[in-house]
Amino acid sequence: MQGYIIDIKKVRDDDLLVSIITQNRLYTTYRFYGARHSLINIGFKIDFELELSLKSSLPRLKEVLGLGFEWILDTKKLYLWQRFLKLFYPHLKDIEKIDDFYMLELDMLAHKMIKQDTKRAIIETYLNLLFFEGRLNSSALTCFLCEKSIENNFSLVRSFLPTHSYCSYSRDFEGSKIKDLFNARKVISFDDEECGYLWDILMQGF
Ligand SMILES: [Zn+2]
Predict the structure, then answer these.
(1) What is the CATH number of domain 75-202?
(2) Taking the alpha carbons of 141, 137, 144, 109 in that order, is the dihedral positive or negative?
(3) Per the confidence metrics, is the pTM higher than 0.90?
(4) How far does the centroid of ligand 1 lie from the alpha carbon of residue 180, in Å?
(5) CATH architecture of the region 2-66
(6) pLDDT score for 155
């Protein structure tokens, strides 16, 4: 089986609970001496096997092989990737069966990151996720706080919920840019500094 590690918790000295997102499920597994295993790290893609144990409800993680990315030695890219992957755990942890959308998007993102700017690629993947989950309402932009339509003073808060900048006391964006974001799910019209702002919103959580 293949998947991406999205959470690691230390138990005892060197053992780990390792949560892995795969095509159809999120697994939380037990790995003996996992802390000493260099391939077991947040964001890493691995090939692995699971062994069911009578003593524990958690399957044991075995036969781990690393499936590298072209950019794995680019520490800046890896750091941003890991911060993004971490956010999947609180988002999906209570769902056992998941749609293959998540794994496919991550595979595509890892590929896009070979050439594309990392933050931009990740933000656009996140927009696809919001759209897939039916949380990106592009037809009419209504303020999340006052529930009135937004004609001017466009802004965004956590989960890219649209607001009036005066309602959320947050940054103003040009309406055309916000519409691009919601309709095309692209950040091409945003400059790097604005993308940095979008990135900070995303890092607040899904
Ligand atoms: Zn408002």
Answers:
(1) 1.20.1440
(2) negative
(3) yes
(4) 20
(5) Beta Barrel (2.40)
(6) 96
